[in-house]
Design goal:
heterodimer, A: alpha+beta, Uridine Diphospho-n-acetylenolpyruvylglucosamine Reductase, domain 2, Uridine Diphospho-n-acetylenolpyruvylglucosamine Reductase, domain 3, Enolase-like, domain 1, 3 domains, five-stranded antiparallel beta sheet, 12 helices, 34% helix, B: alpha+beta, Ubiquitin-like (UB roll), DNA polymerase, domain 1, 2 domains, five-stranded mixed beta sheet, globular
Amino acid sequence: MIPAPFEYERAETVDDAIELLGARDDAKILAGGHSLLPLMRLRLARPSTLIDIGRIRDLSYIREDDDVVSVGALTRHHDVATSEVLRRACPVVAFAASQIGDPQVRHVGTIGGSCAHADPASDMPTVLLALDATLTVRGPRGAAREVAAADFFKGLFEPDLAPDEVLAEIRVPKTTGRGWSYLKFHRRAQDWALVGVAALAGNGSPAAVALTNMGERPLRATGVEEALAAGADLAAAASRADEGTSPPSDTFGSAEYRRELSRVLVRRALEEAMAR
Amino acid sequence: MTRVDVTVNGARRSADVEPRTLLVYFLREHLGLTGTNVGCDTSSCGSCTVLLDGESVKSCTLLAAQVDGRDVATIESMATDGALHPIQEAFRRNHGLQCGFCTPGMVMAAASFLRENPDPTEADVREALEGNLCRCTGYHNIVKAILDAAGRGAEGAE
């Protein structure tokens, strides 16, 4: 299967990419291409132009500041997964990156591409939501805005990005001293999550729990978080995992199966986070 | 058309290609390097695995244009002067193949993996192969072969 024809442009800088986006109808940014190219091969996506940002070196970095770690949007999953800084300061992000796809996918796919694709079955958006991460979006004429993860993932394949905006950076708070977990359930090693759970707990801050593939976007398990804040035990809190969710039904599992999975995985993830 | 200048198996190759040309078809149809197989065509099976700057990638999910200026190594680069690469030799010794279709991808995935982890456990090897499917289900001997290659210091791939 070969993608339908398209124009190919190479951007040398982010501003270059933004200008090209503004000048073309129906153009898409190509980062690693590991979400976009499979869709184009199936002709589920048919952009007129691909703007390849893969060579913009200054979009690939992992930088440690006082309370946060900043990750350039073009940083590959492999580099996130093996980053000593992230493994120490925010291990849930490094671990989740190591669970994406397979080694070949992680050698090419990028954290920014995964976020901008906004697939509710992908792992990193859920982790960023649980962490209250911040995303930096750049637009025309030097404009830049900061978006909370809770606002960025708006819907099914729908990030908070205008047609002439580019996701530039992901900023995650350090989780020093907090327990963490990311668990996903899938049928085969490289499959998308049927359901996934990110959990952070301990060190005096309220527990945070977020869900993969339980609706049209990653969701916070607010029922679980409320129950834990009110002093409920783990099992009772986890039984509220699917409150407010709308999981899909497909050949791999019914919505009801996913609801049950979410309750089980939330309990396991909280147990793991609290033991860490 | 897009100009692509790429080093393939140590030689500079240039071509004007349609932007939609995937790397695997560039290798197979433009350069005649048919050792890299197209299996599932959906980024799942890993038969099309090649090394890009020394790291395993799925050549069915990259545009040839994306690898402009970079270094690609295919299965054809592994044996030198008629002698099998130590990883290939380990596959032969351990009968790490049945029909052989997935083998080029398995060998290239193993080359990349052993460079990242020269002293793996069996569990490490099994996990490292999550992106490569063998429809003969011959995983056991493939894992044995990669452990054998590691034990003989085969990490210096290419």
